[in-house]
Write a structure and sequence with these properties.
124 residues, mainly beta, seven-stranded mixed β-sheet, four-stranded antiparallel β-sheet
Length: 124
């Protein structure tokens, strides 16, 4: 099992940048693919990005492709989401999650552990 804690959220102007961090505890961190999801007001939680165990494979939602970058530091047990060129529609609570399954997934149902979320607000 793994415990996840997100940080780095805040209020930024459109066009700005933020880097979210997901600190993990537990020896099994390297055995999990990591994903980022977000939930905007009035909407269901949606997939944002995923990175494989060895960081060799990444997947992005079309809405963030080219603007967001997911990465991980397995030695430090931290996953990151670098968010550039932020837009007001990026406003949401962002969650990191861990997935032990081998098949890449963009569905929240396939992720085993979740952080508490961190608020990102982008003003126009």
């Amino acid at each position: 099992q793994v415990q996840l804690v997100e940080s780095g959220g805040g209020l930024v102007q459109a066009g700005g940048s933020l880097r979210l961090s997901c600190a993990a505890s537990g020896r099994s961190f390297n055995n999990y693919a990591m994903g980022w999801f977000r939930q905007a007001p009035g909407k269901e939680r949606e997939f944002v990005a995923r990175i494989s165990r060895s960081a060799g494979t990444t997947t992005y939602a079309d809405s963030v492709k080219g603007r967001f970058t997911i990465s991980r530091d397995n030695a430090k047990n931290i996953a990151y989401l670098q968010m550039n060129s932020l837009k007001p529609e990026d406003t949401a609570i962002y969650y990191c999650a861990a997935d032990r399954q081998m098949v890449p997934s963009t569905s929240q149902k396939d992720y085993d552990f979740w952080g508490q979320g961190t608020q990102v607000t982008v003003s126009s």
